[in-house]
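Task: sequence in, structure out. Protein: Lysine transporter LysE.
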Amino acid sequence: MDLTHAVVSFALLGALLTITPGLDTALVLRSAVTMGRRAAFATALGVNTGALIWGAAAAVGVSALLTASTVAYTAVRVAGAAYMVYLGVRMIVSALRKDGRNPEITVTAEPTWLSTFGKGLFTNLLNPKVGAFYVAVLPQFIPAGESPLGVGLLLALVHDLEALLWFSLIISGAQAARGFLARRAVRRTVDAGTGAVLIGFGVRLGLSSE
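Result:
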């Protein structure tokens, strides 16, 4: 398998995984619906930055060490699970508030770019299964004779670009339907649904032994 074949094959796999509904998609959609385009893109960039860091770590072997260390993996897993449950509870509380205020939005009703970026970043970084995925998959797509670091970073970047394109489509779709999505009932439903997804992922991650 040459480098071109490896990149194309990985891109196909990455595309399928990217469009599969999951935590990252739920976070970005929720940001688009409740906070607007700017916050949604900040969340998406945070998620993608976290994924790229995991990909780079896998390429240089850091994630391999993490998955080989039971203590390190457990520490990251528990921290990630707690963070996801925390975010989920906040979103559900926001959905249940009768006054319509969202505790995650500032007094000026404009969430900061840094806060939404950080939410996407840390949600991804605190999920060790992302690192485990790269450790398991990347070696299969590195052709013999090629630099593992260079090819690993290239493949992680390809996956990142696919995710950014997917998130852009989600955000554009949400903006096109903003009249409907801006309704309080819809926003509360999205908050409650995303919160439930986060809690579910957090509990599943926390109870996982792999």
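The CA atoms of residues 75 and 143 lie 33 Å apart.
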